[in-house]
Amino acid sequence: MLLPRVIPCLDVADGRVVKGVQFQGLRDAGHPVELAQSYAEQGADEIVILDVGATPEERDNQVETVRAVREVLPLPVTVGGGVRQVGDAESLLEAGADKVAVNTAAVEDPSLLSRLAARFGSQCTVLAVDAAVDGDRWSIVVRSGRDRLDVDAIDWARRAMDLGVGEILLTSWDRDGTRNGYDLELIAAIRQAVTVPIIASGGAARAEHMVAAIRAGADAVLAASIFHEGQYTVRSLKEDLEKLGLEVRR
């Protein structure tokens, strides 16, 4: 059984790392290359780069940012934002991405997922699921949180796996940036629906939150603010996780 991964996330806009709450009120958090290199030195297992402006601004992902990060990073990199077609993914992979995450475009055209998986492999194809509580279920949120759709998140994750997705980046819109912990019920529900790895995102504030997410069914935990603001280094977080009985990668 693979050990869980700890993954810092770089939300990027205009060449800078930003962070907000529920995808809004973005504030500057630093330079992506400097942060990526620092997190790698601290023991990060992977890095996720999300261009949070690409889809709502209807532009391509910032390939140059990806290329610059790749030059200093010896870790796997997942990149998302602005991927509308196979050619967009190919450009990111050529720039140095190891995996490509898709959200809005896949909801609008699910066949994109099967085309990406056929061209680059399931291990390279990641579905980004942004889910918001909607009564007794979770609905899909797209365009960096701007639009909520009448699409059940659990059903969508299951369908995406059948289309060839190799991993799910699962973000709770309700918890994003709140530091109230991951949505454990959402993680558990997605875990029951799919067999591919799940990266839990949205709401992490301390090591206990991450242990709970792994125990709920996540294979990896993603966080941003706690690293950007210096509450934890990746190394100190892993030490706390181990103190809580969770074996992590070293």
Blueprint (SSEs and pairs):
Layout: E1 5-13, E2 16-21, E3 24-30, H1 32-42, E4 47-51, H2 63-72, E5 77-80, H3 86-95, E6 99-102, H4 104-108, H5 111-120, E7 125-134, E8 137-142, E9 147-152, H6 153-162, E10 167-172, H7 184-193, E11 198-201, H8 207-216, E12 220-223, H9 225-228, H10 234-243
How would you describe what is shown here?
The structure is a single chain. This protein has ten helices and twelve strands. It is of the alpha/beta class and 250 residues long. The chain has a single domain (5-243), classed as Aldolase class I (TIM Barrel, Alpha-Beta Barrel). The chain has an eight-stranded parallel β-barrel with strand order 1-4-5-6-7-10-11-12, surrounded by six helices.
